[in-house]
Amino acid sequence: MVEPMIKAGMAVKIKKEYQDDGDEKIVFIAVDNEEKGRVTIQAQLGMTINPTQVVKVEWLEATDTGKCSDDQYAKRSMGD
Question: Contact at 8 Å (CB) between 21 and 31?
Fold first, then answer.
């Protein structure tokens, strides 16, 4: 079994060539593990319900912050 490249809780950014306007300022958190070349990510905007989207793994790169702790992930998911 192949180990997923992107795992739930990992902080990622969308590569420049796939970004929409403003995406360069947003950190996204992987909501689930990579599967079949895709992963669900959640924009960390501090909203009650942050927007999520399913993207191709090759559109993403890890951020300097790397993997969030479970506590950080819970707070970010809840908009804190």
Answer: no
